[in-house]
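User: Could you walk me through two proteins back to back? I'd like the raw sequence and the structure tokens for each, with a short line separating them so I can tell where one ends and the next begins.

Assistant: Of course. Protein one, sequence then structure:
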Amino acid sequence: MNIFLVTSPFQYICANEARLHYKTKNNTLVIVEQDVERGKKNMEYILDKTVWDEIISIPRSQRTLRIPRVINKIKNKNEKIERLILSEYHGWRSNLFMANFPSAELIYIDDGSATLIEYEELIVTKKPYQRKRLLNDILIRFQKIKPATYIPFNKNLEIFTIFNLKKNHCRITKNNMKGLRKNLLTENSFNIESPIGFIGEANVDAGKDCIKLSDYLKEINKILDNTTKDIVYFPHRMETKKIRDQIESINRIKYHNSTMPLELEISKSNLSLSKLIGYSSTALYTLSIIYNEIPLEIITSNNLSQFSTPNLTNNHIAKQLK
């Protein structure tokens, strides 16, 4: 049996690519449910129930009770667990599975830009997982589950990733999103005569460490000034109505209401683009792989604070895009 643990639509996309790449059989997918409506709809849209032997969905709440139930359900089948395929390398859920299926081969899939940070700070340094909470651990033991109090670095760890990671202590296998590209026929999404796609940024007008809305609008207008083409604007899921109203008021902007993850949206909406433009982000990097026929342009801006977490994340992605 192979166990896949995912907590987001993007993780699911990567898990499905891993299923195809490793040609796994007897696959159990454990999904931690989304807690926002858009995330729920995205997961519902991309989830293909026909390719999984079993799907177990669990809410995000009461995890001290719900995750052990899932582990016990799997244990009670008395089947050999060949692989644990999961993300969130130092996440509690992941490590509880690792603690209870120690002989399984461990494959770490991407969790967006968090993968880059975890790789540099936790995997390269071989940092063990440590977490002790007396009452929670007692409750977990009461359910006949071993708590994840200390998990050493796994010497047999393999990473299945879209990113270009330097080989260090573990095997690294490249995820080129071949399954998704084949299914979507993404080569049909490029046309030199088509509009330009702009990937909306999350960190706009949300505090002192974010891009000012006025600067954001200037960047978009600068692009329009340098081309005769229209822009198809793909909003970030966190975008506010205030930002949307400003964007929609700009001439030659086509505001696109996405109904699914952007990785699928372009192809499924039968859009063709001549270029993709955006700030460095996980979405932009992923699109550069899935739609690699479409030229890419990264906005380099001084408008992001040098002390902000978003900028740190963007810098990690920017290095990958070079």
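----
Protein two, same layout:
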Amino acid sequence: MKNKIYNLGKKALMIWGGISLTGLILIFGYFAYSTSIGNKTVENKATKSDVRFVLNWCRLGDERIEKVTNSYESGRSFTGDYLDAYAIDISKVTIDELKYKEGFYRLDSLPEVLDKAVKMTSGWQYEIPWFPKLENLQKEDVYVYPWSIYCNGIDPTGAELIFVIPKEKKVYYIGTKM
């Protein structure tokens, strides 16, 4: 009887060891894939349907999208750091429309935390040279819609911002976390 229980326990532990080994191989394989060949930066591949969320988030409506002129989607780091940016041509938008739509701010008069977030997101020119420079954005006819700002205290560590330039009929999106 003791021998039978011993053999049964031995088989159960061997099965459990096999299941655990398989689980470890799958977890290691997933992390190896997601930090190497499965984690690539993709440039200028975004379509209209990929960027619909940008105009829907700020309640302008995705039916205005004409085309995506530039896009950048970085690979994700293990800690979740990323950079996504899009340049979108739209059919129409007016300053009056943005002036009275809740959530939009003129770039020449921003609340402190939003101003810090705009400055934080402007430091990516080496990755996305087509994205407007900060000095070109800080004008009274440019508006920003802050979808989210992640802070450490009152210092932004990440943000998702939507810039609208009515004169150019352009929308720029940047999402980043550092």
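Residues 60 and 93 are 8 Å apart (CA to CA).

Let me know if you want the two compared in more detail.
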